[in-house]
Amino acid sequence: MHRTVAALLIGLALVAGCSAKVEQGTAKPVGGDNPPVAKVTTAPADGAADVPVNVPAQVTVAEGVIDEVALTNPEGTPVKGKIADDKKSWSSTEPLGYGKTYTYAGRVTGTDGRPVDLKGAFTTINPAVQVRATLFPGDNQTMGVAVPIKVEFDADVADRATVEKALTVTNSAGVQGSWAWLSSREVHYRPEKYWPANTQIHVEAKLYGVPYGGGAFGRADVTSDFTIGRHQLVKIDTPSHQLVVQRDGQTVASYPASFGKDADPNLATPNGTFVVMQKFDTWSFDNPQYGYTNVVKKWSVRFSNHGEFIHENNDNAANIGTNNTSHGCANLLEADAKAYYDSALVGDPVEVTGSITTLPPQFDWYDWQIPWSQWQSMSAL
Asked: Which residues form the active site (predicted)?
């Protein structure tokens, strides 16, 4: 009897001892039932639709660091991106594609040491229309001091302000200029005065992904780097019968010329500041209204889309230097026409005075016929 009671007491004591030990050492596995502390944010968010393609995708983490991130297109190709030095964020470094679903994957580690998986997907916008833009001048060209910078679109631009904000011009001379919309498909840039000689110019049209309005978006970015050459201009005072070439402020040539007929406003060489647009070794002139077609002349330099050129016309030698008898062009003797042709750059200004006719600003390139204040008002911004 005494042995049984003693054994029972010893057993109870052992049970009580085990129970006390568990209570004193109570602990849950690291983290237990608490959620991980790391908080991951993605932009675009999981499930987002109609996402812009020209805004970087981003992953950020609070109370943790990024271990790895992958953003892949439908073909499984990763989008290029970079984790920040502090490992708190990741950003894509290349544009996204139109109308594609992208998938996030990766992992972060919280300050509690626990990992969190990154998952999600979003879809980019799929434009109804993608508009192509072209830029002039192109790369590595040397242009005259009056050259305009032109961006032309293959469809109308409804939201001109948004598009214009995507256009930038920088130059080595620090010259300021302004964009002006000449139509719903064409915008030009020029400074108040001619470009300084030898200026280096960089143009960026960051148009990919830009909304043009009406469901249209930019198809691609375009850029250009070109140079302004020496400062050369042509001065034509029609009653003088002389075509004067000035370079860097000095007269370097004065050629006898015959300009448009003085008494006929339809044929007179018009007043205005024009720009050399094209050069041709030979050019065929046609004007059936005045009775001639396929009249081929050498060393032809176009300075207006109204039809004006500087060119050789030895057939009119008797009037060159004495009478204005052309249909609006500047006629020179062949040797003089060749000498001028060789000196001319696209973009050189041609300043005409003394005529009975002044053209309205509507025949390319008419940028310099528009007063500066009016030009600035033609910006969409």
From this structure: 311 (proton donor/acceptor), 329 (nucleophile)
